[in-house]
Amino acid sequence: MYDFIKDPSLYSFVRGPLVWIAFLVFIGGSIYQLRNMILLAKKEKVVYPYMSLKLTLRSLFHWLVPFASVNWRRHPVITIMTFILHIGIVLLPVFLLSHNILWRESWGITWWTIPEGLGDLMTILVIAACIFFFLRRMFASEVKFVTFSSDYLLLVITFLPFITGFLAYHQLLLPHETMVILHMIFGSLMLIAVPFTRIIHMFYFFLTRAYMGSDQGFRHSRDW
Amino acid sequence: MAEAIVEEKVKATDVFDLKRKPVADPGFDVTVKKLTPEKIEKVVNAVLNMRGTAARFKAPLDTCIHCALCAEACHWYMSHGKDPSYAPVAKVRMTLWEMIKRKGKVSPEFMKQAARIVFAECNLCRRCSMYCPYGLDIAYQLGMVRRMCFLLGLVPQNILDQDNSHSATLNQLWISQADWIDTMQWQEEEVRAEIKNARIPIDKEGAEVMWCPLGTEPKIATYHIARTAQIMNVAGIDWTVSSMDGWDCADMAMFIRDMETMQRIVRGIYENAMRLKIKRIVLTE
């Protein structure tokens, strides 16, 4: 923020105020949406009385482990791609070496770092997974039938920070600084998109699984 | 029948082009002629507005990422050569998402197609929820479309008639109280051919168990009553049946999401249980 006031350039803007805005919208908006959904569920007569912590954790564990559920086993390729994509999206922004340097420069915090080669590989895999899901949307008949343009848009929003990050790291295509600026803009765009789009599933997942896990577990049905 | 086939070929602009055999049902074919776009818009929006009060309705719509992993859970999808229009998410897409997109401004033909999708191509079995990575309650959403159809009267005639019966008599098949008591006494005689002095106690206060049959039992499968009575007598259970309305545990209102009648049916059973001070309700299934 101080850098931006001292030297108001595009770089110091995306490095300062934009990141602050993105994080505030992401965290504030997500908390607001979660709070609304939890309060809404309280009004329902049949949601809270059946909620059980044990069944919720059982259900979450069952679906967060690759190939644990029947449907994961039925679609091995989709399962691998799904887990690659989501592990990359969650871990890379927080633990990548160049991001860690920024964390330390800004707030002096240091934590575990993904080795550079592994980080690069994970990025490539995330990009590949995005392309895979893009192609699946275009060619798998059952997915094509339920695809709106917003679905492609969400995939592109996910794809852009990773491809620009990859290109910036390898200093390809555009001058380094331009690519880094683009990377920061797209990264912020993705964070801002979370509370307002169906990317909110990163938080709602835990709520909907809690509901279905408890609802079925209450009837002595295990998670499939 | 010929009329229905001709009508099936008429295409409104907002109807999905699906390959389906026409099915003649006055509940759809006659009712759809009485619908106006204004009426549909009012009903559809009234139900859609429940998103603001029902988390179970809102959460799946906000969460679903359109991955179609629920498809293979559906026996309709699997038994129609994996036709994508039978996938659970496709049924939501052709009904709810479309209504939301158009803010309820849909044609009567669209509603007729939606009614066919939710009544005749989905059993609300909830198997898709077990295949959905998020565990979204897809059946609940399609149930809300059934609710819209019910409010518009777009219901298969057979079920609508049974729902009317529930609403008037609290049982499924227009059985009067006199018929019901008479059937019990007649079946008591039948049981006595097997077990000496067997009883079907009617309105016995303070009994352990109140048995609630399905409406079909006194109407067309009376021997079920005799069999149940035999079991109860041999097992030595202190049981009874209610003479008053609210003895039928069938609930066709639930299937068409006629929540008002649905509530009265359940309340009727519980009120009888309170009146007779019984400890347990036993239902036929």
In spatial order, strands of the major sheet of chain B run 2-1-3
The number of strands of chain A is 0
Mean pLDDT of chain A: 90
Determine the oligomeric state from the structure. Answer: heterodimer
Average pLDDT confidence of chain B is 90
Number of domains of chain B: 2
CATH second-level architecture of the largest domain in chain B: Orthogonal Bundle
| Biggest beta-sheet profile of chain B | 3 strands, parallel
Globally, the shape of chain A reads: globular
Compact description:
The complex is a heterodimer of chains A (224) and B (285). Chain A is mainly alpha-helical and 224 residues long.
Description:
The complex is a heterodimer of chains A (224) and B (285). Chain A is mostly helical and 224 residues long. Chain A has one domain (14-41, 48-218): Fumarate Reductase Cytochrome B subunit (Up-down Bundle), CATH 1.20.950. Helix content of chain A is 78%, strand content 0%. Chain A has helices at 2-6, 10-15, 17-43, 53-64, 70-74, 76-95, 97-107, 116-139, 141-144, 149-169, 176-196, 201-218. In chain A, helix 3 runs parallel beside helix 11, helix 4 (53-64) packs across helix 12 and helix 6 (76-95) crosses helix 8. The longest helix of chain A is centred in the first third of the chain and has 27 residues, at 17-43. The relative contact order of chain A is 0.15. Chain B has 285 residues and is mainly alpha-helical. Chain B has two domains: 2-155, Fumarate Reductase Iron-sulfur Protein, Chain B, domain 2 (Orthogonal Bundle); 169-283, no CATH class. Helices cover 55% and strands 4% of the residues of chain B. Chain B has 16 helices and three strands. Chain B has a three-stranded parallel β-sheet with strand order 2-1-3, with no helix packed on it. Chain B is elongated. The two termini of chain B are 35 Å apart. At the A-B interface, helix 3, helix 5, helix 9 and helix 12 of A face helix 5, helix 7 and helix 9 of B.
